[in-house]
Amino acid sequence: MKNLVIFGAPGSGKGTQSDLLVAKYGFRHISTGDVLRAEIKQGTELGRTAQQFIDKGQLIPDELMIEILASVYDSLCPCEGVIFDGFPRTIPQAEALKKMLAERGHSVAAMIELYAPEDILMARLLNRGKEQGRSDDNEETINKRLAVYHTQTAPLIDWYKAEGLHHYVKSYGVLEEIFADVCKVIDSL
Ligand code: ATP
Ligand code: MG
Fold first, then answer.
1. Pocket test for ligand 1, best of 20, 34, 36 (most atoms within 8 A of CB)
2. Which among 5, 3, 4, 12 has a CA at the least distance from the CA of 149?
3. Is 107 helix (H, G, I), strand (E, B) or coil?
4. Is the CB of 10 under 6 A from ligand 1?
5. Active-site residue 28, yes or no?
6. pLDDT class for 136, splitting at 50, 70, 90?
7. 59 DSSP assignment
8. Whose atoms come closest to the Cα of 93: which ligand?
9. Rounded (10°) CA dihedral 166, 167, 171, 174
């Protein structure tokens, strides 16, 4: 079983690469953003809580995210492997993920960092806002999300380096080349 963390700033291409990986390797995919958006759409209590944070460009509290993640994980396993997309986003979430997997005799096989410069991220997200109408894909909220990424999420790069699990992939340019680089990492595990 190969559990993978697909990591990167907002707009770095986590969802796009995850969909390609699901098609090629048959992995299951947990996108915490998609899980939260589905709850919002269904109008659940969790959805109402999540919306308040998302619309301000903030993260949902760790305890809540960790609880959601464990229950989604258990609903998908046993399987070939799970792609964690959008989780962890903080060091406490990374520690909780490690513990949750260890309790099940599982682990993270690799963390893949998708990197793209900020002007490219901004252009992609503004374009997605126009095409898909996501409420958080407007310039003001994007700037807040990028700031949150730098302060709360980017420290995970060093955290995963210390775990010996970090892999860097350049995530701009030709889509097929980016995917080939991601596959190279997975095939080397
Ligand atoms: P990408 O474009 O690379 O898929 P993204 O940052 O645009 O990434 P999502 O991953 O869909 O978007 O997340 C959207 C929002 O959901 C976040 O800004 C945050 O408010 C909330 N969220 C998602 N995952 C988490 C998490 N692990 N912890 C806390 N909040 C989260
Ligand atoms: Mg996404």
1. 36
2. 12
3. coil
4. yes
5. no
6. very high
7. P
8. 1
9. -170
Strand pairing category for 28-31 and 3-8: unpaired
Mark whether 161 is an active-site residue: no
Strand order in the sheet with 166-170: 28-31, 82-85, 3-8, 108-115, 166-170
**Which two tokens mark 35?**
């899980």
State how far the Cα of 76 lies from the Cα of 53, in Å rounded to an integer.
26
What is the rounded average pLDDT for all residues in the chain? Answer: 97
* CA torsion through residues 176, 115, 74, 135, sign: negative
DSSP secondary structure code for residue 136 in this structure: T
pLDDT score of 11: 98
Pocket flag, ligand 1, residue 92 (CB < 6 Å)? no
Quick check: 82 and 29 in contact, CB under 8 A? Answer: yes
Q: Annotated catalytic, 145? A: yes
Confidence of residue 97 (pLDDT cuts 50, 70, 90): very high
Q: How far apart are CA 83 and CA 4, in angstroms?
A: 5
pLDDT tens-digit readout, 35-82: 999 999 999 999 999 999 999 999 999 999 999 999 999 999 989 999
Q: What was the pLDDT predicted at 111?
A: 98
Q: Which atom of ligand 1 is nearest to the CA of 87?
A: 27
